[in-house]
Amino acid sequence: MLDFLLQRRSVKAAELTAPGPDAAQLQLMLTAASRVPDHKKLAPWRFILFDGDARAEFGEVLADACAAEAGMRGEDAPSPIRLQTERGRFLRAPLVVALISRIIVKPGVPELEQILSCGAAGQTLCLAANALGFGTNWITEWYAYSSQVASGLGLAQNETVAGFIYIGTPVKRQPDRDRPPLASIVSHWHKQNGGHKQNGGHKQNGGHKQNGGRE
Predict the structure, then answer these.
(1) SS3 state at 125
(2) pTM summary value
(3) Domain 2-170 adopts which CATH fold?
(4) SS3 for 43?
(5) Where do you find CATH 3.40.109.10 in the chain?
(6) Residue 35: helix, strand or coil by DSSP?
(7) Do residues 92 and 3 make contact, with C-beta atoms less than 8 angstroms apart?
(8) What's the pLDDT tens digit per position in 110-153?
(9) Pair 103, 44: CB distance under 8 Å
(10) What is d(CA 49, CA 55) in angstroms, rounded to the nearest whole number?
């Protein structure tokens, strides 16, 4: 498993082709994606699947949204080439999964925790697909932030698009890319002189910590 994780690599959406996952493989992938940390079992995420003809059908939604939003911004109408590009976006891979983040008001479960849980679901879906031999590309692009597209997806007011995950068979092996050196992203905490914490927490009068905890 560790070797698998150390070789993980995204594949460009345009370099994914058929076959995509079959029904049984898709079931496995989604089941794995639902087994992520989820404080108080809120399931603050859901998945919308696009395969077969649904990809082209939703392409019409993208093209309509592109034209409508250009008009609302007072811009020239999109060119026929641009609209054709939008119609074909979801055709780049045999399966596209819209990852939807939904915030649920619940005491003790901050919004950030729910967003992180959604991210974990998306990453686990990608890893599950990769484990089955498929390539994945998790992207947003303009339509993830479009109110017109959100309406076409039927999103509720507490829902937003966390991204679109393209899944298919890679047409070629992807070259690796540079990763951040661990020295630039990892540090060891230690108590500093004067009783100050490394993260900026100072002792207050009476021996109380800044965050209210007693020593």
Answers:
(1) helix
(2) 0.87
(3) NADH Oxidase (3.40.109)
(4) coil
(5) 2-170
(6) coil
(7) no
(8) 999 999 999 999 999 999 999 999 999 999 999 999 999 999 99
(9) yes
(10) 9
| Partners of 3 in the β-ladder | none
Q: Which pLDDT band holds residue 195 (cuts at 50, 70, 90)?
A: low
CA pair distance 68, 64, nearest whole angstrom: 6
Distance (Å, rounded) from C-alpha 107 to C-alpha 117? 16
Q: Is the omega angle on the peptide bond into residue 175 within 30 degrees of 0, that is, cis? A: no
Cα distances from 75 to residues 72, 81, 83, 112, 142, in angstroms, run 8, 16, 14, 36, 16
Contact 100/156 with Cβ under 8 angstroms? no
Report yes or no: 21 and 95 within 8 Å, Cβ to Cβ. yes
Tell which residue, 126, 127, 70, 134, has the closest CA to residue 99: 126
* 197 residue type, one letter: K
Residues 6+ positions from 197 with CB-CB distance below 8 Å = 191
Query: Hey, what are 191's tokens?
Result: 């108590």
Indicate the DSSP class of residue 142.
G
